[in-house]
Amino acid sequence: MNLKLPHPKRWACAGRIVASTVLGLALLPGAAQAADTSPAQQLERFTAQAGAPGQVERGRVFFTSPHGGEWSCSSCHGQPPTRPGQHASTGKAIDTMAPAVNPGAFTDTAKVDKWFRRNCRDVLQRECSAGEKADVLAFLTSLKP
Fold first, then answer.
1. Are 133 and 119 in contact (CB under 8 A)?
2. Per-residue DSSP letters for 88-100?
3. How many helices (H) and strands (E) does the chain have?
4. Hey, what domains does the chain have and what are their CATH numbers?
């Protein structure tokens, strides 16, 4: 069997095309990037928005208390949230919330915003304030495995 390979200059050209395409896609405006932040940076962001630092104890109480409805944050995320949780109505598995146990927790700003918005509406029937987010994040970042 005689296999004829393309000329080496064609390989170099193809490599440049692939590399420039990958680079171009990576630089697209609005391209989502996972791990664009850290739990500490998220806590700083919510603290700045609230104008006051998050408080661990206030976050623990907020996380474990129902807020006018049947659910609290811990209804799905568990107490303590150092183990995986389970959605109260669907039964779907939920990753552990504590960054000390789950290194991927709170490392994607878009996901942090999405899940705070969705879960606060489920528990509070409104969005959480920046102060409430700072308190919850202070509590979660204080937890050890």
1. no
2. TTT--EE----TT
3. 6, 2
4. 39-142 (1.10.760.10)
Residues across the chain: 145
Neighbouring C-beta atoms of residue 106, cutoff 10 Å: 24
How far lies 79's CA from each of 27, 55, 61, 65, 144, in Å?
41, 18, 11, 11, 13
Whole-angstrom distance, CA of residue 43 vs CA of residue 17: 41
Contact, 109 vs 49, CB < 8 A?
Answer: no
Strands (E), the chain: 85-86, 93-94
- Dihedral angle of Cα 71, 118, 49, 65, to the nearest 10 degrees: 0
Question: What single DSSP character describes residue 4?
Answer: P
Left (φ > 0), alpha (ψ -120 to 50) or beta: where does 83 sit?
beta
pTM of the model: 0.75
Rg from Cα positions in the chain: 22
**Within 10 Å of residue 115's Cβ, how many Cβ atoms?**
14
pLDDT digits (tens, 9 = 90+) for 19-75: 444 334 334 443 344 689 999 999 999 999 999 999 999 999 999 999 888 889 999
